[in-house]
TrEMBL record:
CDD domains: HTH_XRE. It comes from Streptomyces nigrescens. This is HTH cro/C1-type domain-containing protein. Keywords: Membrane, Transmembrane, Transmembrane helix. InterPro entries: Cro/C1-type_HTH, DUF2690, Lambda_DNA-bd_dom_sf. The chain crosses the membrane at residues 120-140. It comes from the Bacteria. Residues 268-289 are annotated as: Disordered.
C-alpha cells in the first residue's frame, strides 16, 4: 500500500526536497510502515516522520541505514544527502552583489592589463598543478604501512554528526563520564556522556549472558536502539546529541529484565510490558516523582 504523503514545506530548499523525495521512494520500496522502519534501523518512528516530511534534516547515518534496508545505490543517495547538508548549513548570503564597482573601488581592468592578469592567473594555476604533482609523488614514496595506519585512524564527530554512530569508532569514549548508573545482581546500566562529542549513549555490562536491547532516549521522541542479540559482554547503544542531560535516559533489557537510569533518578523499578519491550522513559519519569 502506497503512503499518502503530505506536501513538503515551502521553506525547504531544492536539495532538501530532492533528498526527502528520494527517502520517501526508498521507504515505499521497503514496504515497511514507520513502526517497521524504526525496528529495522536505530531511529524512532517519530524521527522518521520528521525526516520523511522534510521537517528535519536526517543525520547521515539515518540516510545510510534506510539505504541499506532498501538496497539503494549508496553513492548516489549520499551524494543527495551531502548536497542537502551543504544547502542547509551554508552561511546566508550577505546581500545581492552590486551591479558595478562600489565607490572607492577600482574598476575591473580592461585591454592589455586584463590580458596580463589572465596570464598571471594561468601561471598560478600551472604552479598549483606542478605542486600537486610533486605532493602526489611524495605521497607515493610513503611506506604502505604508514598509509594503512593513517586510513585506520579513528574518525571524529560532534553533535548531530555523531547521531546513530557508535562512540568507540569516533573516539567519544575517551572522555566519557557516567552521568547515572543502576546496578543489580544481573547487570549494570550506565548513562554515558562525552563533552568532546556532545553526545550521550547507554552501556550495559551483564553479570552473565548478554543484552537483547540497549537504548538511549532524549525526551519523548529521540530514541536509538541497538540489538546485541544476547551476545555476552558489554554492549552499547548508538549515540544521540544533546545539551540537556536531564532529558536523557539509558535503558537495557537483559534476560527479560529491564532497567533504566537517567540524570533524573528513576526510583520506581522498570518492569517489561507484555512483549518485554523497553518502556517509555516518559512514563518512568512520571512514576519516579
Amino acid at each position: 500500500m502506497v503512503s499518502r504523503w503530505r506536501p513538503l514545506p515551502d521553506t525547504l530548499d531544492p536539495a532538501g526536497q530532492l533528498l526527502a523525495q528520494e527517502l520517501r521512494v526508498l521507504k515505499e520500496r521497503t514496504g515497511l510502515s514507520l513502526d517497521g522502519l524504526a525496528r529495522k534501523t536505530p531511529y524512532s518512528k517519530s524521527a522518521w516522520h520528521r525526516y520523511l516530511n522534510g521537517e528535519k534534516l536526517p543525520p547521515r547515518a539515518a540516510v545510510e541505514a534506510l539505504g541499506r534496508v532498501a538496497g539503494a545505490d549508496q553513492i548516489r543517495l549520499l551524494g543527495l544527502y551531502d548536497a542537502a547538508h551543504r544547502a542547509r548549513t551554508a552561511p546566508a548570503p550577505a546581500g545581492n552583489a552590486p551591479a558595478g564597482p562600489e565607490i572607492g573601488q577600482p574598476a575591473p581592468p580592461t585591454g592589455p592589463a586584463r590580458r596580463k592578469l589572465r596570464g598571471a592567473a594561468a601561471l598560478i594555476a600551472l604552479t598549483a598543478v606542478v605542486a600537486t604533482m610533486g605532493a602526489a609523488a611524495s605521497i607515493a614514496s610513503i611506506p604502505a604501512h604508514a598509509v594503512r595506519a593513517e586510513w585506520t585512524a579513528p574518525d571524529s564527530c560532534h553533535g548531530h554528526r555523531c547521531e546513530g554512530r557508535y562512540p568507540r569508532r569516533f573516539g567519544c569514549h575517551r572522555d566519557a563520564r557516567a552521568e547515572s548508573t543502576i546496578t543489580d545482581d544481573t547487570y549494570t546500566v550506565r548513562l554515558l556522556f562525552s563533552p568532546a562529542c556532545g553526545t550521550v549513549w547507554s552501556e550495559v555490562r551483564p553479570r552473565s549472558g548478554g543484552a537483547q536491547k540497549v537504548s538511549i532516549w532524549v525526551g519523548r521522541d529521540a530514541r536509538l536502539t541497538s540489538h546485541p542479540g544476547g551476545r555476552t559482554g558489554r554492549a552499547v547503544s548508538p549515540m544521540l546529541a544533546t545539551e540537556d542531560l536531564h532529558s536523557a535516559v539509558a535503558c537495557a533489557r537483559v534476560a527479560d529484565r529491564v532497567a533504566c537510569t537517567g540524570a533524573l533518578e528513576l526510583r520506581t523499578p522498570a518492569r517489561p510490558g507484555p512483549d518485554h519491550d523497553l518502556p517509555d522513559p516518559t512514563f518512568l519519569l512520571h512514576a519516579a516523582r
